[in-house]
Amino acid sequence: MKTDLHIHTYYSDGVFSPEKIVDTALDVGLQAIAITDHDNVLAYDLAQKYLKEKKLENKLEIIRGIEINTLYKNYEVHILGYFMDTKNSDFQNMLKQQQQARIKQTKEIIALLAKKEGIKIKFDDIKKLVAEGGSIGRPHIAKAIMNAGGTTNVMDAYAKYINDNSPVYVQRKTVSPQDAVEIIYDAGGIPVIAHPHDIDIAETLIKDLMNYGLRGIEAYHRKHSPACVEYFSSMAEELGLIVTGGSDFHTPNIMNGQIVLGKNFVPDWVYDKLVQEKKLIDMA
Questions:
Q1: Is 32 helix (H, G, I), strand (E, B) or coil?
Q2: What is the distance between the alpha carbons of residues 26 and 20, in angstroms, rounded to a whole number?
């Protein structure tokens, strides 16, 4: 089963609509995908509806997913979730809390940009850059800064204003990775640590998160070298965790015009192990 288990839409920091993701996935020959927007699950139903309207359900399976942004000891830790019941009250409360934290952070950054840099941006200027009900993030703030004339391009906006060391950047108050893992697991989902290469305390943290229900490691990721994939795959096997992977798709590769959705090699058995893990959780 050709799969991509890490995809973003314009309901977070991706640029494609859920419908465009479905079309693109089919174009590149994918058979199963997971839409994993940051702190948001709205794209799933739209993608499923589109699939049914086009009578393509037998061509592509869409897995309900999410990527929760968390903070732990000044590390930004992302937790992926698959197959969870999104109507679960604790899960819904977590999403509400995450969305409120994003709005609060954005408004605080807007105030500091005006006060310290003389860059005036309205909250609505940022809100309109993401789909209705979507998750506002750094890319949207950076684009609004550029649109307001604060910089000539988005990369400069990141470099000057949207990084942890900037005097106008405010850290978001998020849930902990432990809470995110536990809530996804208790909602019947499979919690997986995303792109662990980004975290130099990954092994210690993974072992700790297992106490809260962590069930997998994203070993296959576009940032992971073959040696890195081998390292995290071996760690997963040693700890009794499953391995997942995906392209972490946000936007087509503008540099060479290529679509990278599904380009990250993920072995066929990854999908089977994920489905098997869901059955084990449901039986527990």
A1: strand
A2: 10
DSSP letters for 214-250: --EEEEEETT--HHHHHHHHHHHHHHT-EEEEE--B-
Domains of the chain: 3-83+178-283 (3.20.20.140), 95-160 (1.10.150)
pTM over 0.70: yes
Q: Calculate ∠ Cα 218-219-222, nearest 5°.
A: 95
Q: Which amino acid is at 240?
A: G
Averaged over 100-123, what is the pLDDT?
96
β 190-193/75-82 pair status: antiparallel
pLDDT digits (tens, 9 = 90+) for 116-171: 999 999 999 999 999 999 999 999 999 999 999 999 999 999 999 998 889 999 99
